[in-house]
Here is the input.
Amino acid sequence: MSESNYKNSLLQITLPTLTSFNEYHRELIESAVNCSSESLTIHVSCQKIEIYRNYPVEYWTEFHDLLNFLYLSGTKVSYDNLKHFLEIDIIFEKWNGYNIELVKEKNFDVFFGSKAEQSRLQEFNDNRKKASLSDVHILIFDTKTSPKNIMYDQNFEDRKKFNENPKKLYQTAIVGGTFDHLHAGHKILLTMTAWISGEKMICGVTDDCMLKTKKFKEFLEPINIRITKVLKFLNAIHQGLLYEVVPIYDIYGPTISEPSIQALVVSKETMSGSGLINEERQKRGFETLNIFVIEVISSSNPSLKEDLKDHKLSSTYLRELCKNSKSK
Here is the structure.
């Protein structure tokens, strides 16, 4: 199999902290995207992920920025290479709740990594052998950038001591959207909602009846397909939650029928609706929701937003591509 035609690949990246990413990791992602044709799983090992998880609100920005960096780096390269439908997933080891190398459904063709990851990739194959699974080809990438000079979270211990009683995970958090042709922006939104959820996460998926005026609506994925894809993704990133993925028929969804919901995650574009939701909850005698806003831009590398301006990271653009492809 040629290096540019691996269907299902895994890239292993190890980070000491949530903020220790740099150009070296972008190079690895670029190489992995160039060698992948259908799906790329970026498997992130971060030693302190379980500790960060105990401080989800305090480390919201760091986790958000890391996701943006990883997803948008991969998306930029895939779009530059006209691989608009390359499936890129970011999976965090330990937080996900399972061993990624043993998932048969992934059907990996190759394990990617730098020289520093070679022993880890071999460990994946050793684990597969113990599980009576076949070896996966290992491909090592060279990089121009050194993995040194990374940004360490030097204030971690001080912040940990300062937050003796940190804000715990929200028992139930909710997010909503159309989630058509699930792309990087959707995946960041879903992952950040799971990040602050303690027991249950609700995801409202806009029903077909509300999407009649959408552009290129004939290429919208049906509601059942969108729900299935969202649920599959959520179970891939974190298996420790109860997920409730339901169709919604207005902007409120379960937010005005379930008083136990504590937090709402919205995109910057849909932030105005959060005020209406809290007004309706107050009318019903429910506690107002804590609002968390997602913006698809990394504060540590704002140039990513400029890079992606011409890439139209949206479901509408992907539906247009489907239309153009069908008309050829």
